[in-house]
Design goal:
Chain lengths: 100, 503
């Protein structure tokens, strides 16, 4: 079944993805995403009603580490790549705004 | 020893020459740095060349030897590292504008192990941005050229590493493979590439793309070099909880023991019209070589990895659909960390709130393919679509793995192509993302199943381009794959191909 990924849906996915899209990108992605999702839909041909999902190639569980303090980054190392810092903090614009 | 002679040696031969005092590590580093200076203007294999540090490392090896200290197995061997391995020196960019100036605060375990073995790190190699691509054209900086024909791509995403080894701008290299990113560029550039079993090599410090699929592996001049490099990087690491605690065999020690009664699996379904005829012929010949060495060839079936061609000529495969759903879902989650807050690019545009900061930063920092994948991954994981896409893909993933389990009841390894074509031209497949995804049709199934795969040269096409072949084995069958590869390499005399311009 052919998918329609209309322009508003592309804008919505862009918002969920935290990527601001240009109008040109919205147009291009609308066409491309529909084609790719259509391709994904081929999996519907397969009967998987009795198949357990496999999230991982090597199914190991509960790898636990000893609860002992080890080496970690110093605040200066951790903040060395910060676009903006304020003392020992990452600096960001206000988180609770009025534009949402 | 002359510079040309040095870059003619395999990594193993060079390590032996340095250990024997026939060549100084500093001479080897100089020889490779001159080769890089001569080759880079046309190839663009490296994002960053670490000349000063490489010379220091090399001189330290020479000093250690002069002091009578025991040298590591890679002492003085100059290697290249894909630019998605964190190193506490130079930049770690993933060929993305969003990380263009990122300096990692720690060392990837695999690189640390190479250095502990005495290797000299020449630099960081170009790649598709965040390893998303099959041609290295998605690099946020510039494409890399194929040393065999500079109008063609080197494959991807580890295209810089494969091109560097092929053109002898490095004695060997590390790459990463999420869906074929080591094996396909190795095939396009006429070198050897191994994607080990998931969990064989620690991923600590490898920038994450698809965490259940990513694995680190060597790109090498020949099978022996591949075995040498794998031995150096394999093994348990408490810093990666998916890295398995299994002993690491001496891959070199058993390399020349012939495999008696080897059963080579032949998946007929892989040899459809979608495959280039010259490649099909070369792999057929390889099967004959294995037979002449005493192996048997048995038919196997991998129905869920099969290539279908519909009436309209449209090529498809369940494995490709399954892989891209899983990989994009994992990528959308992994790449959420690029937020303009902790490290990497931050928008200079005025913003009123944090959401705008994220959205503008990511719009400016990510390239088109990365955006496409984050968006598709976000969509397939979103409420209402999770079962139809992501959960469905996880179920098909098990069917793909079951196919391999059954096949390995009948054979020791599967012989098949690496890619449907030889190296294609720059720009040839960039217009349609799906066309590029189909490049991975022969390589992605084993990432989904966690299996090891070895890519090695099977011959040259009439146009003079390398043809690769792939050997796939059960989990932890690297020894078998390398021994089989070595048997073939010796019998077919196809080892250590050199591109015309550099031979």
């Amino acid at each position: 079944m052919a998918k329609t990924i209309d322009l508003d849906l592309v804008r919505h996915i862009g918002k969920l993805s935290r990527i601001e899209l240009t109008e040109q990108e919205v147009q291009t992605f609308s066409r491309q995403l529909a084609g790719i999702l259509d391709y994904f839909d081929k999996l519907r041909e397969l009967d998987t009603s009795n198949v357990q999902p496999m999230a991982h190639a090597v199914e190991i569980h509960n790898v636990l580490a000893a609860d002992t303090p080890g080496e970690s980054l110093t605040p200066d190392q951790a903040l060395a790549n910060a676009p903006q810092r304020d003392g020992n903090f990452f600096k960001v614009p206000k988180v609770i705004g009025d534009s949402q | 020893m002359g510079a040309n002679k040095i870059t003619d040696l395999s990594a193993r031969e060079l390590a032996a020459a340095i250990a024997a005092g026939q060549c100084k590590a500093a001479e080897a580093a100089e020889a490779y740095l001159s080769a890089i200076a001569a080759g880079e203007p046309t190839l663009h294999a490296y994002n960053d060349v670490l000349a000063d540090r490489a010379m220091e490392q090399a001189k330290a090896v020479d000093a250690a030897r002069a002091a009578g200290k025991k040298l590591g197995p890679l002492a003085g061997v100059p290697l290249a590292i894909k630019d998605n391995f964190c190193t506490p020196y130079g930049r770690t960019t993933c060929a993305s504008k969003i990380l263009a100036n990122f300096r990692a605060p720690y060392m990837a375990t695999a690189v640390g192990k190479l250095e502990a073995a005495g290797a000299v790190i020449l630099g960081k190699t170009n790649m598709d941005e965040f390893a998303m691509g099959s041609s290295t054209e998605n690099s946020g900086f510039r494409p890399t050229a194929n040393p065999w024909d500079t109008s063609r791509v080197p494959g991807g995403s580890s295209g810089g590493s494969a091109a560097a080894v092929s053109a002898r701008l490095a004695a060997g290299a590390l790459g990463s493979d999420t869906g074929g990113s080591i094996r396909q560029p190795a095939a396009f550039c006429g070198v050897v590439g191994l994607k080990p079993t998931y969990g064989r090599v620690s991923r600590y410090g490898l920038v994450a793309f698809g965490s259940s699929l990513d694995q680190i592996g060597p790109i090498a001049q020949d099978i022996a070099d591949c075995a040498l490099l794998l031995g150096a990087i394999a093994g348990h690491d408490a810093k990666d909880s998916t890295c398995l605690d299994r002993p690491v065999p001496d891959y070199l020690a058993t390399l020349d023991e012939p495999l008696k009664g080897l059963r080579v699996g032949w998946p007929s379904e892989f040899f459809s019209k979608a495959l280039d005829g010259e490649i099909a012929a070369a792999i057929g010949k390889a099967a004959e070589v294995f037979k002449s060495l005493g192996a048997s060839v048995v038919e196997v079936s991998l129905p869920h990895s099969r290539i279908n061609i519909d009436a309209a000529g449209q090529v498809s495969s369940y494995a490709v659909a399954c892989y891209y759903i899983v990989a994009m879902a994992e990528a959308s989650s992994n790449l959420a960390r690029y937020d303009g807050v902790h490290y990497g690019h931050r928008t200079a545009q005025p913003v009123d709130d944090i959401i705008a900061l994220y959205s503008k930063t990511r719009a400016e920092g990510f390239g088109e393919e990365v955006k496409r994948r984050i968006m598709l991954g976000t969509y397939t994981l979103s409420a209402g679509y999770y079962d139809a896409y992501y959960n469905k893909a996880l179920k098909v993933r098990r069917l793909i793995k079951n196919d391999f389990d059954q096949a390995f009841g009948r054979c020791d390894l599967v012989l098949c192509p690496v890619a449907p074509t030889t190296a294609f031209r720059l720009g040839e497949k960039t217009a349609d993302p799906l066309t590029m995804y189909l490049e991975d049709i022969y390589t992605i199934s084993l990432n989904l199943a966690g299996l090891p795969g070895l890519s090695l040269p099977a011959g040259l096409s009439k146009a003079g381009l390398p043809i690769g072949m792939q050997l796939i084995g059960p989990v932890f069958s690297e020894e078998t794959l390398l021994r089989a590869g070595r048997m073939f390499e010796k019998a077919a005399k196809l080892s250590r191909l050199r591109p015309p311009a550099t031979s």
